[in-house]
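Example 4.3 (complexes with small molecules)
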Amino acid sequence: MKNIMFIAPPAAGKGTQAELVVEKYHIPHISTGDILREIAKEDSEIGQYVYETLASGKLVKDEITYQLIEERLARDDCKNGYIIDGFPRNIEQAIEYDKILEKLGYEVGNVILINIDEKTLEKRITGRRICEDCKSIFNINDVASAPKVESVCDNCGGKLYQRNDDNLESFQTRYQMYKEKTEPIIDHYREKNVLKEVNGDDTVENVFKRVDAIISE
Ligand code: AMP
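Answer. The structure with adenosine monophosphate bound is encoded below.
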């Protein structure tokens, strides 16, 4: 199947959509945010740098992301399609990604842009809770996706936590970063004729129907 890239502002639900794609199509989900959150736990100089950068809402240095992306995409499980989420985040990364794809003999595939407005995102971000064990995502500000018992995962009983960058101040920095740095890559993919857009201001299921219609085209 074709590779899939998600582009979306913070808290637009791209992680959730990526998980649904994984469930249905069994392809690996490569999320630079997830990989970086693992690195941030390391007791090392780079671990400390990544931890602080993530908490501030800024982007980590491009070189760090190139290395981890190329290594990850070169693994066998990516040869039959993968979802890339959170990368590229700026035009420099998009240009480097083109080179990585060429080196590995891969196509960019479908680039799916999730559109959603800033106010809706602000509401979502402060309510987002994630399961420590199975990584399911809930939202305490939204009846439809709130956990049945506060702080407990409906799916596996794990403990729910809040990402340390899920606060209003960090969101505003991340949203600004998205506007300034990430939005320019939309045109990069539009020009290549691979950009598909979906409305993200809807239930998880409805957004997935739109995403799935693109994938299965
Ligand atoms: P995400 O889970 O995609 O929202 O990413 C969380 C954080 O990880 C971002 O706010 C950045 O600090 C960092 N990050 C993720 N992907 C990248 C990337 N491609 N380039 C630089 N920083 C990134």
